[in-house]
Write a structure and sequence with these properties.
Ribosomal Protein L25, Chain P; alpha/beta; Alpha/beta knot; 242 residues; elongated; 5-stranded mixed sheet
């Protein structure tokens, strides 16, 4: 089977279905991946199922059969990222998707430089492409921008990363409930204020550090997701072997 993978979330998918391709998907298949009529590719519906499909022509696919699938991960990571300037958010969306995040919630806080954005659809496209490239079965949700105070109302079982925290991620990990979504909260270029940190503590959110060095917000997002993914993977392995 070809390694070409394509998310089709705009059409119901089932064996025998003929799917008309969108303009964007045609460009990806034929211009980027150099596919041709007769090729067998993998179609994903974005809900955890995948199918084998045959390219009929440059505009349509025939769904052949459902493929064997396994879950993306056994845990649920939600990245809460303060809006950043420039193209930093693009990189975070791409890398967070590759690492396995299930949802990304952008937000504004007291020291945010950027407070509004028109890039949600761009970020959703980046997430789709990154999910296809990295072999995921689902595309992470990209939520609308929240304020910090509204974000705190959504968070249960979360960690806020702060450079002045005294506990490390490994210190607080075992107190997290890995059967529930784990929220990771990353601040803006100037960091969180003391008032914001106290508000998070008042909501029961854990405050943790990523080490002795002060790292940039975009770096912190990728590092925290990679570390928590590693810890969760090892936790699952240990539990299975008990």
């Amino acid at each position: 089977m070809s390694e070409i993978r394509l998310f089709i979330t705009y059409n119901e998918i089932y064996p025998g279905k003929i799917v008309q391709l969108s303009k964007e998907d045609k460009k990806y298949l034929f211009n980027v991946m150099r596919a041709k009529a007769g090729d067998i590719i993998t179609i994903l519906n974005g809900k955890g199922k995948s199918f084998h499909a045959k390219i009929i022509d440059r505009g349509a696919l025939e769904i052949l059969n459902e493929a064997n699938t396994t879950r993306d991960t056994y845990y649920n990571l939600v990245l809460c990222q303060s809006l950043l300037k420039g193209e930093k958010m693009d990189l975070i969306i791409q890398k967070a998707t590759e690492i396995g995040v299930s949802k990304i919630i952008p937000f504004t806080s007291e020291r945010s430089i950027v407070r509004v954005t028109s890039k949600l659809e761009r970020w959703r496209k980046i997430a789709k492409e990154a999910a296809e490239q990295s072999g995921r079965l689902t595309i992470p949700e990209i939520e609308a921008v929240e304020t910090f105070n509204n974000l705190l109302k959504l968070v249960d079982n979360g960690i806020l990363f702060w450079e002045r925290a005294t506990q490390s991620l490994s210190d607080v990990f075992l107190n997290l409930n890995t059967s529930k979504p784990i929220f990771l909260i990353i601040g803006p270029e100037g960091g969180f204020t003391q008032k914001e940190v106290q508000s998070a503590l008042n909501k029961g959110i854990v405050i943790a550090s990523l080490g002795r060095r002060i790292i940039r917000s975009d770096t912190a997002a990728i590092v925290s997701l990679a570390l928590i993914s590693f810890l969760c993977d090892n936790y699952v392995i240990i539990k299975r072997n008990e």
